[in-house]
Design brief:
By secondary structure, the protein is of the alpha+beta class. It contains nine helices and 21 strands. The longest helix has 18 residues, at 160-177. The two termini are 36 Å apart.
């Protein structure tokens, strides 16, 4: 164990009750809606907020133990904190921002070179691009020689083009640093790309933890399924034939799943599991749902096509071959093995 976090604290609409462990070289992403308690968790670790009850331990060092009346000041906790808006000082140049708060003897020049911002050392922050500001903020966070790294929405301030390259750079950096890292984001794609493990936090509680692959394959509930990008078809499950579960859909008709369930459920289907055609095709897909195309969104060499409650991700070539346009009636098909069931009880 490298970092252990436990705390309870009242927020506006609920009590946050969080228990997390982060390994020595692990990145944990906290994902969830705004106000769920993600940033509160970072602030408790950094010492910027004292919870009603809590304990923060880094290896064997106790940073916080409310019962034992231990509460080390933020400056006494070796935390590198990347704030959501980076919190850089606009009146200082890049070198001065990185130097701020660094221990004596820290080589600012080495940090600037590491992040390829050495030539910007005397440039004011307001003259930097979004990607350059993020590099400055990361350099400043690492100047404290942290034992723990905290990242609050590290990519949210970037435009879509910059985000792709910076995400790759940040992923490589986190692997190189091998520090216990807690990353907060609302974007499941960012969490999947950057984190070893993801914790989904809702109303102050972590409702599911696991790798991105595990969350996609086995979502605990409808929120987690939606968070991973799945479409949800609502209905009532009952035992079917051949070991399958039949789900009588609220919108009419039935769908089938290889998973067992009964009562009110949601069928979670990922976009890449859905195929489209003008009529049902004779393949291995057991489920066929008809509907009207309400939107088509090109994404590179693919397209996301919404049909009723379902989203299908198909190739641009398939879109052109089928000559699909908004308003067309089509059939969305998916296999019973792709229909993951989540309880709505």
């Amino acid at each position: 164990m490298a970092l252990r976090i436990e705390f309870t604290h009242p927020l506006r609409a609920f009590d946050a009750n969080v228990e997390l462990t982060v390994g020595r070289a692990e990145t944990l992403a906290l994902v969830g809606p705004s106000g769920a308690g993600k940033t509160t968790t970072l602030r408790v670790v950094a010492g910027l907020m004292r919870p009603n009850r809590g304990r923060v331990v880094v290896d064997e060092k106790v940073w916080l133990d409310t019962q034992a009346r231990i509460d080390r000041a933020p400056e006494d906790r070796r935390v590198g904190y990347l704030f959501q808006e980076y919190a850089l000082f606009p009146h200082l140049d890049v070198a001065a921002n990185v130097r701020f708060g660094a221990p004596r003897g820290t080589s600012v020049a080495a940090l600037l070179d590491r992040f390829r911002i050495g030539p910007l050392a005397r440039v004011r922050v307001r003259e930097l691009s979004g990607g350059e500001r993020q590099r400055v903020a990361l350099a400043r966070a690492l100047a404290r020689r942290p034992e723990v790294l905290l990242l609050d929405e590290p990519l949210s301030a970037l435009d879509a083009h910059t985000k792709q390259s910076v995400r790759a750079e940040l992923h490589a950096l986190l692997r190189e640093l091998a520090l216990p890292t807690v990353l907060v984001t609302h974007d499941f794609d960012d969490a999947s790309a950057l984190a070893d493990r993801i914790g989904v936090i809702v109303d102050g509680a972590v409702v599911q933890e696991g790798s991105a692959t595990e969350l996609v394959a086995r979502p605990n509930d409808a929120f987690v399924a939606s968070l991973t990008g799945a479409s949800l078809l609502l209905g009532t499950a009952r035992q079917g034939e051949n070991g399958l579960t039949e789900v009588v859909l609220d919108g009419g008709g039935s769908a089938w799943s290889t998973e067992s369930a009964s009562g009110r459920v949601g069928i979670a289907i990922q976009p890449w599991e859905v195929t489209l055609d003008r009529s049902p095709t004779p393949d291995s897909s057991l489920n066929h749902v008809g509907g009207r195309i309400t939107s088509i969104v090109p994404v590179g060499n693919r397209a996301r096509v919404r049909v009723g409650e379902l989203v299908a991700e198909i190739t641009a070539a398939s879109l052109e071959r089928l000559q699909l346009v908004e308003g067309d009636e089509v059939v969305a098909s998916f296999k019973a093995t792709a229909a993951r069931l989540v309880s709505l009880a």
